[in-house]
## 1
Amino acid sequence: MLLPTRRLSIESARRGRWDTARVEAFSDGVFAIAITLLVLDIHVPPSEFDNLWHGIVREWPSYLGYATSFLTIGGIWLAHHGVFRRLRYADNAVMRINLVLLMAVAFLPYPTRLIAEAIRNSDAERAAVIFYGLNLLVISTLFSALWGAVARDRKLLEPDVTEGELRSILVASSPNIAFYVVATVLAIVAPHVAAVGYLLIAIVAVVRVQGDEPTTDAPVPRVEPE
Amino acid sequence: MLLPTRRLSIESARRGRWDTARVEAFSDGVFAIAITLLVLDIHVPPSEFDNLWHGIVREWPSYLGYATSFLTIGGIWLAHHGVFRRLRYADNAVMRINLVLLMAVAFLPYPTRLIAEAIRNSDAERAAVIFYGLNLLVISTLFSALWGAVARDRKLLEPDVTEGELRSILVASSPNIAFYVVATVLAIVAPHVAAVGYLLIAIVAVVRVQGDEPTTDAPVPRVEPE
Amino acid sequence: MLLPTRRLSIESARRGRWDTARVEAFSDGVFAIAITLLVLDIHVPPSEFDNLWHGIVREWPSYLGYATSFLTIGGIWLAHHGVFRRLRYADNAVMRINLVLLMAVAFLPYPTRLIAEAIRNSDAERAAVIFYGLNLLVISTLFSALWGAVARDRKLLEPDVTEGELRSILVASSPNIAFYVVATVLAIVAPHVAAVGYLLIAIVAVVRVQGDEPTTDAPVPRVEPE
Amino acid sequence: MLLPTRRLSIESARRGRWDTARVEAFSDGVFAIAITLLVLDIHVPPSEFDNLWHGIVREWPSYLGYATSFLTIGGIWLAHHGVFRRLRYADNAVMRINLVLLMAVAFLPYPTRLIAEAIRNSDAERAAVIFYGLNLLVISTLFSALWGAVARDRKLLEPDVTEGELRSILVASSPNIAFYVVATVLAIVAPHVAAVGYLLIAIVAVVRVQGDEPTTDAPVPRVEPE
């Protein structure tokens, strides 16, 4: 069963590996859909329609969840964009890690929904916030693994990507994992604080992602992080 | 934490900033999904199936909401298209404002649903229509902010975009904000009228957006608006 | 309010009109989402889980609706593709008709749902099938209007599109309107037959759409239809 | 009715057949949406919120269904990508088989939902797992038919696709059909085992799909499979 496949990959050697354009389009589709489905879970229960303003305000956990998940996925999308524009092509490992990353991202609306439903139930909110944090931790780890798989093989990268750039993206994505570990542990004692913490991490992640700014025309000094 | 990122952006200086192609694809995805999800909230309750025509007609608030939100998002999409085809690349501010704009657009199905549910309850309809108007106001303001961020930095724009073009888009997007303020205030006293007003604003916005018409080959006179 | 816009369109005269690439991407998004949302409305009620095969079979109206709407939208997508690959650019009329066409296509999951729910209720099924047929009639009419708007202005078309091609697409899209009128009228007396009729029309439409086949290298004879 | 269409296809002979770019974009859209909608069906019932961890764990059939369907569609997407990057253009048969394939893929969330709901009901789970397996079997068969339609006509393929490549893809996609037949038959006696089997088949399919690896620069030996 594996033999024909291996033969195939040798025969088509001149074709390059996985072209990144369709991977990006597919990933963008999943990010865009996951981000837009979040709104389907915001509902004012019919019993609240007699005082709708009150009902709208009472839905604040849904808004917090919506904003957090939207900005988290938005930040992942920006960072994903940052990885793929540096790729010449993807190899099999990158394709598979990317697929599992998308699986984790597309899963996020479920714990988001749990938080919105549980936050009024003091017994359930702890579990919901920890579960949400674990999902974020998995996403963050998979993203680091994606970049790790890219960084392992210089041939995957565009030739003008520098060593410093490589390592600094890896360094920049590591703190997120640490943050999510801290926030998830914090959720055990203070779920509300952790829930706000996830939102702050998402905002910081969106603000931190930087495009390529041509602010200097001077020769670029190679700086080694750490 | 910020240092490696800053270093990165210096090192990759030759790469240009944010390429607009993938931003457009992602934004189009969010617009297309938000616009298509609207139909999920239109339901004839089972009790109406004994006289289904009556039940179908009774759902008119849902159709009004569907048409209004569809055309509003459609108009935003056309205008978004108008901004991005004039961009050479996006900077960090444009990327972030765009992400928040998408967050506000993807939120619109929620107040649309509220209007459809509330319009038969005279207590709730006022709140629902005002809440919907506030969402439109936020979208409109963010769109102006997006164009403002673009207009601030001439380097972001294609070289053949004129000063007059710049200012006239800004002028053209401002009336929408004023309209939404008026309609939302109107909603306090006459929610039904305001609901129809939102639809009219959306239709006007779709009709007003113009492609680039090569109707004249004569040299273009520079006209200063206002 | 209109003045700055008009000025704008004159100033940007050298830019061409509406580029078709992003319109196609956005339309494809709406088609793909509408087509994929259809499955959300297929449910076996919990009471049927004691005899699940029976429950699965009993859902046949949902499968009929799914197949009909999927193939109808699929056929529209193929035909839409056929129109847009012949376009050099879109003008304002094409953009607006296209937006209203998408609004009608994205609406189709709602009557599809009604058919699936109503077909077991003999009072409701007639109304549901007629309502569904009216939606198809509107879609079909808007599609003809789209192609009519394209055909009116030769400048919108690629230079190698012939007069015969133009007219034959118009002729080919007209029978659909007639078919939908007939099937919808038929629905008044025989809703089940009409429901199957819609499926047949969709299948015929998918089969009839032809790509451009380079079967002849001989000079192409100009044939006038009718 | 058919005549104008046939005439059309002759007249536009110089245009090539169906351009693959928009077919890929549309198919990617359907894959991405079907894959992302799966999460909408995962719910913890309100009665479980008093012990949410327990409720989260009890949802394991939903997670199994989510992972299986996500990886199955992901594997189909990778294989679809593999077919279309070898195509110069699609003919009418490829377009129609592709549309029916998308219809079967977009249907998968429905049996996924049934499995998640039925697995706690020992009467229903057998039917649900078999029904799910039949859907996978249909998808797998349609995918083979798609590649068969491509392989039948060498003119559809890029000129550098070898005979061995052609046959090895056909060989590689056949075992999936056999696996699904085996797993579906197994479902009659041991539904739980079959459910895990579907997941394993999906994982194997994702791992087996290979990009084009330029591991050798040596001339490629033509190997005939079997």
## 2
Amino acid sequence: MDFIIKGNLCYSEGPECLMTLPGGYLVYAGGVCAGAYGELPQRYAGLPVTDYGDRLILPGFCDLHVHAPQFAYRGLGMDLELIDWLGRRAYPEESKYADLAYADRAYGLFADAMRKSVTTRLCCFATVHAPATLLLMEKLEAAGLMGYVGKVSMDRNAPEPLCECSAGKAAGDCEAWLAKASRRFTRVKPMVTPRFIPACSDALMKRLSALAREYDAPLQSHLSENPKEIKWVRELCPEAKSYADAYDRFGMLGPRTVMAHIVYPEEEEIPLLRDRGITMAHCPASNINLRSGIAPVRKLLTAGVKVGLGTDVAAGQTVDMLRAVTDAVQASKLYWRLTDRSAKALTLAEAFYLGTRGGGAFFGRVGSFEAGYELDAVVLDDSGLPHPQELSVGERVERALYLSGDCKVVEKYVAGKPILNRTDTAGNGA
Amino acid sequence: MDFIIKGNLCYSEGPECLMTLPGGYLVYAGGVCAGAYGELPQRYAGLPVTDYGDRLILPGFCDLHVHAPQFAYRGLGMDLELIDWLGRRAYPEESKYADLAYADRAYGLFADAMRKSVTTRLCCFATVHAPATLLLMEKLEAAGLMGYVGKVSMDRNAPEPLCECSAGKAAGDCEAWLAKASRRFTRVKPMVTPRFIPACSDALMKRLSALAREYDAPLQSHLSENPKEIKWVRELCPEAKSYADAYDRFGMLGPRTVMAHIVYPEEEEIPLLRDRGITMAHCPASNINLRSGIAPVRKLLTAGVKVGLGTDVAAGQTVDMLRAVTDAVQASKLYWRLTDRSAKALTLAEAFYLGTRGGGAFFGRVGSFEAGYELDAVVLDDSGLPHPQELSVGERVERALYLSGDCKVVEKYVAGKPILNRTDTAGNGA
């Protein structure tokens, strides 16, 4: 079942190195990407070729932080900061997912939007409801996406319909869900998901950490998003040396952990995050919309912390990862201008790297077209961006990132499997 | 030729007041808007009705600052600050407009994009080339847009192909163009356009100011965009009390003047700008992309300065004014968080106001659906944004602003004249 796709290839070879191959060949052989080539090596000459002509072919993007149940109210209610926003926007909407009929409708729209987007892999929050979370996993798997979904755990400081009341019940529910979810799906896997420190008791955190080890599951949560939240965590955990330490005390920081945001890391937290090998999900649009601020990405990268990008729908308004890439560049420019002149702004090549290979590393060899990587690829029609002058492939990619609303995803491969009909030309970022 | 259009109306009655009329009637009578009504008054019962069903109908948006010749390289080359960007991106591209064949191709794409966008009125920079500028005006007029276009004037600190060499020649060229342009078009009018202080000698500024009065033409330029540019102006004009004063000394600040940016106004400049009655074109995306910073819009609004929005293509990447509205909200949130906690962030209603009625005031009674306004309206199909729950018209508008890439302009009225075919469903922001 080996094959070749042909088109204008563009991918990261490293944080500063955006590689382009006009009219290049992307080879799928032996179940993985066998490399990207300007001229087809003789040994692949017999393979079937799908020729995408003048279209752009990019690696699949990896959305490291997205809340599926919040998709229903994306682009709405951006007038609040985090804690008020959770109480007045997020929790009321998430409560609806006790109703499986509503979940079916809403998660159907989310899965369809993800299918049509440039995203191939994701780390996704669901709600506390196990049945709806299984439904979401089923829909994402059917849509052809890969990645992780988390049933959210909360046993304190949450409204009644979402609060799992006791650590025992919350951990029991999580374990029952983990047992089912681990067996039922092949492309979408469960992820232990304590919402954040304020919503999880110590007793629950201990149990969740043990469950992650027992089920060999990755873990995701939120870290240092908003000043008020950080102050609250300090009050709730006077014994913790830092917000990161509040997770670390439970053994929750490790190479299979994604922590979203990290807008206000303290000096001593940074080496801890690096040494534990966690991956930061940088969510610039969300941090702006909720007035949280701008994460010091340059500082974290320089310190050696692993970083990927997240859309954080619905605090971020769109699931479009192309926009997340340029949002990251723009946010870093303002951080340089307004906060720290030593923090060089991200280049577009760096942000592209974060959105593909940087975040992709959390899923294995994902996010590039080098030999040995999984073949995740997005075929993009940029003919909605006419131009009077000649443009290089690199320039066309740059423009597609900044003006993604005018581009269309015409095909998408996830681990070598095409998941859109060739005739489907629905816009990305829906 | 009176008529009615029907649909879900949304418009500003004031900076904080976004009015919605689900299934409302927008009446065009006697050459102007005769008001928006939830129920049709008996006196209009006989007029023909175009029913847009469940679509959204918004006032036309007013782009107070856009560079037509830069449209060709929108979304490219965002790695430089203003002065370097002008030298390495803007000026080389603008030099191409000496070639009318290139201008025809490039301005054709620009006019088509403007036609399909949510913009109905604009203040537009061309280049120094009079023939190409007339061609641009012709294309915008044919596309049905209204507003002002400026042949740029520059006689110093500009590269050879764009520098008009002497104040006399530059002023003469401007006058010859003004004479032709004033007579030739009905919907698109000329605007005197000194590029900015660094590119115009005192002698040229004196002549341009006189020409604006003589031809009863409005005037546009740039003010306080970037720290390096501001420092340069201080060196070039040691006798001016401020950057604004450097224009004011030539009588260039008045109620028919648009000044783009104003990112770093000095305390004494603000009352001057208010008292002269100029309109500020706030261009948040541009100010972020070129790392200029964030303009203190709240402070200027509170002081009574008139403010509208501009896309500033190509320093801003898109001509989509819906995005400019949400960019303005987002930039103001970061300004509040990172720079000045007394500067309350813009609400979405306020930013909508700036993008329609605020900027519209520069063109007369434009930007609202109240009786007596000109009828500029955009019919928007937001069915690309599916949702599982009921949404109010206000919520749908909010979402269309944040996720404009998934909406389509299906019709647009400029001063009562429909300018898109009903079958044209090309996306906005192209």
